[in-house]
Each structure stands twice: as structure tokens, then as C-alpha cells.
Amino acid sequence: MSGVVVEDALVAALADVLEADAVIYEAGALDYYANDVYRSGGLPRAVVRPKNVEALQRAVRICAEAGVAMVPRGGGASYTDGYILPAGGHVVFDTGALDTIEINEQATVVTVGAGVTWANLKAALDAKGLRTPFWGPFSGIAATVGGSMSQNTLSHGSTMHGISAQSVLSMDVVLASGEVLSTSASDAMRFYGPDLTGLFTGDCGVFGIKARITLPLLPVLPYFECLSFAFDSFADYHAASRKAAMARLDDSHFGLDLALSQGQIGRQDGMGARLKIALDVLKRAPNKVKGITQLLRMAIAGEDAMRAGAYMCHFIIEGFDAEEAAIKAKLLRRQLDGLGREIANSIPTFVQSVPFAPLFNVLGPGGERWVPIHGVFAHDRAVAFDAAFKAMIAARKAEMDALGVWLGTMFSPVGPTGFLYEIALYWPDDRTSYHRQTLGDEYLAKQPSFAPNDASRAYADDLKTAIVALMQDYGAGHFQLGRAYPYQPRLAPPAAALVRAIKSQLDPKGLMNPGALGF
Ligand SMILES: Cc1cc2nc3c(=O)[nH]c(=O)nc-3n(C[C@H](O)[C@H](O)[C@H](O)COP(=O)(O)OP(=O)(O)OC[C@H]3O[C@@H](n4cnc5c(N)ncnc54)[C@H](O)[C@@H]3O)c2cc1C
Questions:
Q1: Domain 9-96 class?
Q2: Is the CB of 515 under 6 A from ligand 1?
Q3: Among the atoms of ligand 1, which is closest to the Cα of residue 360?
Q4: How confident is the model at residue 262 (pLDDT cuts 50, 70, 90)?
Q5: DSSP letter (8 states) at residue 495
Q6: Residue 137: CB within 6 Å of ligand 1?
Q7: Of 1.20.1250.20, 3.30.465.10, 1.25.40.10, 3.40.630.30, which CATH number belongs to 98-219?
Q8: How far apart, in whole angstroms, are the C-alpha atoms of residue 207 and residue 502?
Q9: Architecture in CATH of 223-357
């Protein structure tokens, strides 16, 4: 009982069953929760931050009884309208206070509260020489395990171990009724009959609010090699990434075009950041002589590493010992022979050293607004999509230049069969309270700023829609569907009927994140 006296009966009821600081209803604070990285939605009626599963269940029951929409939110680092309700009037369930981490070394699992960030999970596991197979998106300083499991995520560990959904054993989900559904029928394995855990991965919170998540553990491989290659054409880049994804020698790799190398990623190397990275590299290098050699190579390469080719691919390779890492590096070089040329490895060395950088990239390198759009292509469609996309942009170039809209591209493997093509759009426009709260006044004071720009914003939104449609023409799949990518129209009728039946079984009144996944 908090004893808070408020006029809104629902808010008063929530305050009654949660601790005093676990209900937020001041207009200024609510505005932050009405925005994701990209879009602004309707104002929520309140935000709750339950501190344990029982409190979460109590808050859900109150909302369910009142017939109020419930919208789960983890770190808020997404940009696909996943927790943005245009109509407003909903209750946001901020999972940030569900932050327990229980490591069971003997059982080889870790069970976390859904609101644990990937950065905090890594810190806890590092101390024991352990890791999860997939170990987080680049946004892991803010992004939560629950958020990633709810919308499918990739990056760290993904070449070797796949996406977030492939690194979870079981989940406890609070349903719209307030009941807890445990997806696990066994403590030791996930695939006990039909995959109930899988059902809740990528659901964008429409089936319920994840409260607890159990992930498998692996040993950290402390030795590493970082390799970078430059390519003159997209076709060569794609061929190299496909071969590397099939060979699975690296823990993760990612690619950047020239625009992103020099802008978004390249700018992370201000003097302060460089010094910190240099120290981290040395501190973490199991072999100090090798650490110093890496640093010297980075220093000599300087900015050139960011400009070495039209496309660049960056690999992080791990081993139990230096010999294993070196052999994998040798084999990878052999795989890529004839496709690209090896360049200085500054970028993967940065990323290996600071895997979860501050979220400076929620704005562009010149303070512009930013939104990424991605599609996952079958390898036999990726090059054709690239050509069609370039033709589309060439036809729009004059309009884009006039409105200050520009773009860059980034790539990741999705197992051996998928190729993720991500397009980052930038346009001059005002920030929202999301950007102000995430980056802080001190940082923003040093960044260029823009007046509200309806014309450029509308153009970027139209371009985003056109790119998604083009991706669909080439058969793309998507992660992080939220309200931004089509889902149900892509399903065969019997599959769509099954998904709708599951939704009405779990949430008959349609109160869980209405609008996401088209529900
Ligand atoms: C700078 C930057 C870098 C990024 N890098 C990557 C990257 O490397 N790889 C990548 O895949 N993505 C990346 N992203 C996108 C995003 O950060 C990730 O996809 C991340 O997983 C989002 O997690 P979150 O906790 O912030 O989720 P949120 O944004 O809070 O929520 C995402 C969705 O999940 C739902 N949800 C959240 N928590 C729960 C829960 N407990 N139960 C049920 N539903 C829930 C929400 O309703 C919403 O639909 C990046 C974003 C930024 C800003």
C-alpha cells in the first residue's frame, strides 16, 4: 500500500497494490513513454514499474478488470512502434525493476528478470567466465533480455549461435488474466513437444508480459582475433558474408557501407572514447604483446580503416586459446580469398572492447533523426534486392537532397540461410523527449539541432514505407515487427487462423499491446 491519493481511480488502484515509486502518472514523465526511438504515440494514462512477479500480476489484474490496454516496455530502444499506442490512454508496463539475475552454474543456466539489460547480464556472467550463446544487441546498455526475446534480435554471438530466440530455454509470462504461464515442461531442455517457448519469442508482447527468462550458459572464450575486409561491390560483400556465415568461424560479423563507416560508426572514436577503448583492449588482451600490436595497428590505420572500400566486413573470432583463435582467423581468410582485401581491424577491435556503447546513435552523426529499416533475404534474392533498392534511391535522389534526407546501409548474417540488409535513414528534424532523456542535456548541448521539419519527416516516413514494400517484393522477412512490418497478411490462411486462435485464448479481450502484429 503506497497511500498515494490520486483522482484517477485506475491509477489510485495501481498505486494501492504497488510500491509508491512504482506508479508514474505525472504528465512530463508520461511524455517520455509516449515515444520510441522513431515515432511519437498517444500519452499513456500511467506507467507501472513492478518490482517482482507478484506485483506485476496484481497490476495486470487491475488493468484487466478496468478493460485498459496494457503495453509492455523493456529498455525502450526499439523503433518499430512496438510499445507506441497511437490512441493513448493505456498503461505502460516498464519492466526495468524486474532485474534479478540468478546464475545456476551446476544446472548451466541463468534465470533473469525480464528487465535485466544485456550489459548487466554480461557483467554478472563475465565475473564467472560464463556467457549466454547470443549475448545481446549493440543497444544492450539499455535493451533488456525481455525486450529482445519479445521482438527477435541479433548481433553479439549471432554467427556462431543465432538470434535471441535461439538462446532461451523457458519463460514465465504473465497473461492478460494475471495468471503466470510457464513455457517449460522440463528444467533441462526447451524442445519437449511443441515449442511453447518459441511461441512467445517475437510476439511483441501481444501474448503477455514476460516476467522471468531462463537462458543456457557457455564458457567465455577469452582469446580473440579481429579481422576486417574491404569490398568494391555489394555482390562481393554478400558472397563473402554468405561464405563466412556457412563456415561459422567467427562469433559475430557485421558489414557497413562507406556512408555508415564514416558517419554513424566512425564518429564513435572521439579522443576520450579512443583512449578508453585503447585501455580496454590492453586490459582484456590475454596476451599483452598482442594487445599492444593491435593498438599499434589501429593507430597506424587511423581514419583510413573507415574509408577502405565501398563495403567493409568486420569479424570477431574467439578461441579457448590463442592458437584456436589464430587457426579460425586463418581459415576465415582462406574462405574470403579473392573476394575482398584485408584492412586494419580498428572497427571490430572497438566493438569487441566496447560491445554495448552509449546510445549516441539514436541520432545521426550530424544530430539528425534516425530510423533503421531492415529485411532478411534469402541469399539468392539479396543481390537483386540491392540493385532494385539502388534504382529506387537514384530515382528519388533529387527529392532526398532537397529535403536533407540521406541513408547508409549495414548488414548481418542470419544463420547460414538469411542475409539481413538494414537501411538507416537520416533527416533533419527536432528531437523528442525520448532523445532528450536518453542522451541528456549535456551531450545534446554539443550536438547540432534542427527545428521541427514536417516535410522531411513525412518524406522519410513515406520512403520507409516504400522500402518495406520493396523488401516484401523480394520476399524479405523481418524481426522487431511491432506496428511497422506486416505480419498476419504474410501468413498462409491456416497459420493466420491458428495465431488468431492463440491470441483469443490468451487475451480474449485484446488488452495486451493492441495493434502490434496487427492484432
Ligand atoms: C543504437 C541502437 C542499436 C541497436 N542495435 C541492435 C542490434 O545490434 N541488433 C538488434 O537486433 N537490434 C538492435 N537495436 C534495436 C533494439 O534495441 C533491440 O531490438 C532490443 O532488443 C530492444 O530491446 P528493449 O528492451 O529496448 O525493447 P523495447 O523497445 O522496450 O520493446 C520492444 C518490443 O518488445 C515488447 N516487450 C518489451 N519487454 C517485454 C516483456 N517483458 N514482455 C513482453 N513484451 C515485451 C514491447 O512491447 C515492444 O513491442 C538497436 C537499437 C538502437 C537504438
A1: alpha beta
A2: no
A3: 1
A4: confident
A5: H
A6: yes
A7: 3.30.465.10
A8: 8
A9: 2-Layer Sandwich (3.30)
